[in-house]
Design goal:
The protein is an alpha+beta fold. The chain contains three helices and eight strands, in the order αααββββββββ.
Length: 231
């Protein structure tokens, strides 16, 4: 039982038992001594691996440290501001020369862009080349004048009658004769029928007299075929 103090309160008593092999009050704790030895060994290991200070700091060895020779090599690879543009995309020149070539090509490309949208002349437009395996794109002719012309079918019925001479870019036959009319270009080739009550436009001609007409039924009764030329 714990002893009682003079004030009548119980007194807590703590005993410290030494872990040493000596008697009471003799030696140090085995645990404390082992810890101190381990710390000492660790400090000595660090000390042996730490180089001597240089200028109050720990020196650091860097592999591939920059030297004057290496800097010259890098400068040559980059190039100088005065270098001209590279002659080709794969030229063995500095980076600056290659960049200048790229900028020059961009300048050329931007120069070909129209300054604004809308219709442009050929010189201010992108050139378009039709692929070799595609048919040419037809272009509608620009027409500024026109008039009417007519041709009468031949009495023989089988003979073609050409329209009178009239320069034009196209001719539209208006078949109001009441009978089917056959048309040839240049007086030869396949006959193109223009049925009664219909019309047909022939493009790509230079004169109305390139077209000749006759009745499809080859009747000897003559009819007058009206047409409109445009140029």
């Amino acid at each position: 039982m714990p002893p009682m103090g003079s004030d009548g309160e119980w007194v807590q008593k703590v005993e410290v038992v030494s872990g040493s092999t000596g008697g009471p009050g003799g030696g140090t704790s085995n645990t404390t001594e082992a810890t101190q030895l381990a710390v000492k060994a660790a400090v000595e290991a660090i000390n042996t691996k730490t180089p001597a200070l240089s200028g109050g700091a720990v020196p650091v060895a860097v592999a591939g440290v920059a030297t004057a020779d290496r800097q010259d090599t890098q400068i040559a690879a980059i190039g100088a501001p005065a270098d001209g543009a590279a002659a080709a995309d794969d030229s063995a020149v500095g980076i600056i020369a290659l960049i200048k070539r790229g900028l020059a090509r961009w300048t050329t490309l931007l120069g070909r862009l129209p300054t604004a949208l809308g219709a442009k002349t050929a010189a201010n437009s992108f050139p378009v080349v039709i692929a070799s395996d595609q048919a040419a794109v037809g272009v509608a002719p620009q027409l500024s004048s026109g008039g009417h012309i007519a041709a009468q079918t031949a009495v023989s019925g089988t003979t073609y009658t050409a329209f009178a001479s009239q320069a034009c870019k196209q001719l539209t036959i208006l078949n109001g004769t009441g009978v089917d009319i056959g048309v040839t270009v240049g007086g030869a080739g396949v006959e193109v029928p223009v049925l009664a009550g219909t019309y047909y436009t022939f493009f790509g001609i230079t004169n109305a007299n390139q077209l000749s007409v006759r009745r499809v039924d080859t009747s000897t009764t003559q009819v007058t075929v009206a047409a409109r030329w445009e140029s």
